[in-house]
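Appendix B, example 12.
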Amino acid sequence: MVYEHCKIYGPYIWRDGRKRVVIVFPDNVKTVISYAKYLMEVHLDRYLDPNLETVDHKDSDFTNDVIDNFQLKTRSEHSSLEVPRIKEQLFVCSLCKNSFILSGRKLNDAFQNRLRGHTGPFCSRSCAGKATHLSRNDPRVVVHNIKREKYTLKNPDIIFNVSNSNDYL
């Protein structure tokens, strides 16, 4: 039986609002897993393959931890359906006036930097370095609005919230 001789603590609600359990195995090895994964493993009476399987909430409500609301998916299947793909954007560097495109991780980093009050984005590390020595009131330092517009997926059953005015800074 799965987790037969283990100590189970929780479920605890973490900062992200999701429930997790702490499992202490008989050899005192501790691990933290999602409550949904724990419930599914107990229900199936087997451990899920950590490299292949994941538990998905059918109704996309991660607080609804009813076993009928769970479905097993491969990790690649789950990520292709659930991870929003952010559209690339064209920017003009405020220092050298070169145009450049940001996409993926770099665009997300630029968006997070804007939330923190940083200037930019810039076309290169060189321009970013030069801009740090200028004041925010310098007319050469332009603060770009970054919109997090998402691609629409091929699966029409999945609906993502399209960017709204709160995504602008």
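The first strand starts at residue 7 and ends at 13. Strands lie at 7-13, 19-24, 30-34, 53-57, 70-74, 89-92, 99-102.
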